[in-house]
């Protein structure tokens, strides 16, 4: 088998790619990252959205467990304090079309915890189960030619060094330098598109109040259909008996960083439930802001003459507004494509391997991109989206009708769960049963408030210090 593979980036995409390469029999797999990696689940500089809410969807977790077999990633995360949340029965969710019902059928189950816990758990499992080596180093370029990449240039204390490789995987994330690196090889003209709604995330951690340990995940979604900035908030259970509370506002509706303004923001949403909950909870951190939220797509898979020996995965290929909870799963899908193509090729030297991986990894990126951008372009002030065409408006109208049906139709809700959980592609929404449900509309009346149990209503009323 091949001698060495180099992975740039020790985040989720990078460690999953490294596991795939090691399991495929690559003799030496080296992961390079400019950060000093923590020895536990702690925030690091290379995760700009790390302090904000992340949802590990069932489709993504399944892909991760296939990539790191025998590690029981789900079990490890749950043992460390992650929570299982049913999309069908374990959430209080206010959509743009009204409150969603909680059905007896639980639906897909996602995991909630900090992003730092997910990254650390995956990294620890990969390093335990494989011979992958992680080094702290800043990659500054590629070596080789426009026809084949031969390795990377690394900046060190003594100047630049060279590390040869049969395959280089760029999994360096949102801050990738892949475009100038390709320019350095004589490959230019890569098309890049950015769609930026101006979203600002603001998050704060609270201690879960006594008696509220089983209170469901609560979210008030942004409404893209009202020609106003999108504003949202979520209360999500995380490890350590804590709530992670994340607010998000698009351009013109950004949440503030001061604690009083943060609370006012949550109370000013179409339903004040998030503010009512946290008004009686003890804050454990300051409010943290992040603006690194735009959708960016590097169309590397469309480059006519792609070099052998170079693969790009994860956020380095496409990033999405984090409000839609797709990034971790898409990273896992890309790494899984790498494994599938390696199995077919039988080695890193197979002609066309890099291009096939790139094109395969681009498919889940494009599906996630369409979902994220299709909503972001509707917010006022979005940059780079262009004006929606007839097809875009038709898709928006259908999505809105499906969401309204889901407020009172199990068939419509099930279709949305399947897509949201990333177990099926968006085409699931056009299955005959889903189409019929969308056309029929909700057979049950719209809820006038959140579907709380009597015990949950007692908890909410007991925490509420706002008089709302």
Question: What is the CATH class name of the domain at 4-45 and 117-194 and 294-374?
Answer: Alpha Beta
User: Roughly what percent helix?
Assistant: 25-40%
Low-confidence stretches: none
Q: What composes the largest sheet?
A: 8 strands, mixed
What is the overall silhouette? globular
- Provide the β-strand percentage band: 15-25%
Structural class: alpha+beta
Number of separate strands: 22
Give the CATH H-level superfamily of the domain at 4-45 and 117-194 and 294-374. FAD/NAD(P)-binding domain
Number of helical regions:
13
Mean pLDDT: 94
As for the CATH topology of the domain at 4-45 and 117-194 and 294-374, it is: FAD/NAD(P)-binding domain
Rg value:
22 Å
Q: Give the N-to-C terminal Cα separation.
A: 65 Å
CATH architecture of the domain at 4-45 and 117-194 and 294-374: 3-Layer(bba) Sandwich
